[in-house]
């Protein structure tokens, strides 16, 4: 098994500049089965745009009708996707200390849709699954609007979501229980955070985790399973699978 060409190209571009961060690349990206034929018609593929500096990198993967080289000026960033966002993003950043990296993990921001919130002392304790405690509360935004929030721990990870379309506590708990199996995919390390922003066009998911002084992150625009499957398929460029 090898990296797809568009992934390997993106990793090589990132590695030329991000010299202080081991570059992780995915063997799998959300295809037509995962993203839906509406977004990925038959015969379509991916193209990558890459941003990198010595201590960080970000690879955005876009749906495209034709194969394009990484950072090609022909990469059309709407790519037929109404959300005008990449189908998946993989990034990494080296911090000065492991404490700084840990803070970055706890400041997980779901592509601007949902910023990780501290669980308030007034949150209600609930049971998401056997031996999986969780919390539910209402959070007030800067504009004064209130949204329902749910959080729970899963094997060292802290997961948080905002099922705004299910205003009742009981329904929100059922929604969280539905998400638990999707988060059970193999995840790296023992510490991380996942934000799941629920919107009309899907579940926008960001997972962030720490490896020493480095914080890695994966964003997927359509579903929790898409994000966790991308993560479980990550390999470093130095150990390219064959």
Care to describe what's here?
This protein is of the alpha+beta class. It is 21% helix and 35% strand. It has 5 helices and 12 strands. The chain has a 10-stranded mixed beta sheet. It has a two-stranded antiparallel sheet with strand order 1-12. The longest helix has 15 residues, at 169-183. It is globular and about 50 Å long. The mean pLDDT is 81.
Tell me the layout of helices and strands:
Layout lengths: L4 H13 L6 E3 L5 H4 L9 E9 L2 E9 L23 E7 L3 H9 L17 E6 L2 E9 L5 E9 L2 E5 L7 H15 L8 E8 L2 E10 L2 E7 L3 H9 L1 E3 L6
Q: Tags for this entry?
A:
about 240 residues, 10-stranded mixed beta sheet
Shape: globular
Distance between the termini: 5 Å
Number of helices: 5
Strand content: 35-45%
Q: What class would the helix/strand composition place it in?
A: alpha+beta
Major beta sheet, specifics?
10 strands, mixed
Helix/strand order: HEHEEEHEEEEHEEEHE
The residue-averaged pLDDT reads 81
What is the gyration radius calculated from CA atoms? 18 Å
Specify the helix fraction band: 10-25%
Low-confidence stretches: none
Number of strands: 12
Strand order of the largest sheet: 2-3-4-11-10-9-8-7-6-5
Structure described in brief:
With 242 residues, this protein is an alpha+beta fold.
């Amino acid at each position: 098994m090898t990296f797809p060409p568009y992934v390997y190209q993106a990793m090589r571009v990132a590695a030329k500049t991000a010299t202080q961060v081991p570059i992780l690349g995915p063997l799998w990206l959300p295809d037509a089965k995962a993203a839906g034929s509406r977004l990925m018609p038959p015969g379509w593929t991916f193209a990558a745009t890459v941003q990198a500096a010595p201590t960080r990198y970000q690879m955005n993967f876009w749906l495209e009708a034709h194969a394009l080289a990484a950072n090609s000026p022909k990469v059309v960033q709407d790519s037929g996707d109404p959300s005008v966002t990449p189908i998946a993003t993989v990034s990494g950043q080296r911090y000065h200390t492991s404490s700084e990296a840990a803070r970055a993990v706890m400041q997980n921001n779901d592509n601007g849709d949902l910023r990780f919130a501290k669980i308030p002392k007034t949150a209600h304790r609930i049971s998401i699954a056997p031996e999986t405690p969780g919390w539910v509360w209402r959070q007030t935004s800067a504009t004064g609007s209130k949204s329902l929030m749910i959080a729970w721990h899963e094997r060292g990870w802290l997961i948080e979501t905002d099922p705004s379309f299910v205003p009742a506590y009981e329904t929100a708990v059922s929604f969280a229980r539905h998400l638990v199996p999707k988060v059970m995919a193999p995840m790296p390390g023992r510490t991380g955070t996942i934000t799941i922003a629920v919107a009309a066009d899907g579940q926008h998911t960001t997972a962030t985790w720490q490896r020493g002084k480095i914080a890695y992150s994966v964003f997927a625009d359509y579903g929790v399973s898409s994000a966790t499957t991308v993560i479980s398929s990550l390999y470093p460029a130095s150990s390219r699978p064959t």
